[in-house]
Amino acid sequence: MHTFPPISLIGAPTDIGAGHRGASMGPEALRVAGLAAALAARGLDVVDRGNVAGPFNPWLPPTDGYRHLGEVVAWNRAVMQAVAAELAQERLPILLGGDHCLAIGSITAVARHCREQGKHLTVLWLDAHADFNTSAITPSGNIHGMPVACLCGFGPQELTGLGGGAPALSPEQIRQIGIRSVDAGEKKLVRDVGLDIYDMRYIDEVGMKRVMEEALLNLGPRDHLHVSFDVDFLDPGIAPGVGTTIPGGPNYREAQLCMEMIADSGRLGSLDIMELNPALDVRNQTAMLAVDLVESLFGKSTLMRD
Ligand SMILES: [Mn+2]
């Protein structure tokens, strides 16, 4: 059983980068589902920092290939500062989204922290989508489909350079799991940059256990693991409360195993819980499932197993 640093919850109540309204209610739904109490019941020190603030969603069509770029930048800057402040106090930030564009701010802060601390960052991106669109290839202009590309330096300078200079990540630092929807132009781009994608076909072929063994291979004491958990990673049969449901995701047991194996690695250093959309949920069941899975991510297991 690994120990975890004290935890800080940070809400980012916006759907500024999404294609449906409602992810702005995600932080509150996770609180109502008892996230803080569930972690505290595991003996963890948890503080809820409340929400960061940002501009309203004007719900406009794209300009030059992006929807709401200025507002997305403002929200991401606020998220980056809030996440950085927790990391500087040696706390483990959990970002409560909000749509997945906010992972740009969150991971930019984590990447800078790791550089300063001489740690090696690996990002596990749990998602139905690769989120590697650019303005040239995006079908919609929604920036929640672009965060991985932006973090790797493909995107508008305001987002790729959010933390200052170079891109926050190189593609080798990212492992994507659960992917089953990649747009046409995106397919070529993720192949060209060599993104490490464990798609659903691969999970079907070799099983979640081997996928996680490969994704978590060779993590050592100098490694910081960031998990960016898009709730649409999960099969919509168990997780209807997301804007972009794609059939054929991990089932309950596969998702639990994924989280438990990340916990076993002992390297979890930061987390995003993204894209939960209470407007599309059924009696908050998706939020409660997310809390259940996050408990496993922080070491809850059926038996004592060390
Ligand atoms: Mn996503």
TrEMBL record:
Source organism superkingdom: Bacteria
Pathway where it operates: Nitrogen metabolism; urea cycle; L-ornithine and urea from L-arginine: step 1/1
Top class in the EC scheme: hydrolase
Keyword Manganese among UniProt keywords: yes
Catalytic activity entry: L-arginine + H2O = urea + L-ornithine
Lineage per the UniProt record: Bacteria, Pseudomonadati, Pseudomonadota, Gammaproteobacteria, Lysobacterales
Signal peptide as annotated in the record: none
Species name: Dokdonella fugitiva
Keywords in alphabetical order: Arginine metabolism, Hydrolase, Manganese, Metal-binding
Family in the record: Belongs to the arginase family.
Known EC number: 3.5.3.1
Protein name in UniProt: Arginase
Entry binding sites for Mn(2+) 2: 232
Cofactor binding, per record: Binds 2 manganese ions per subunit.
Any GO molecular function: manganese ion binding
GO terms for biological process, alphabetical: arginine metabolic process; urea cycle
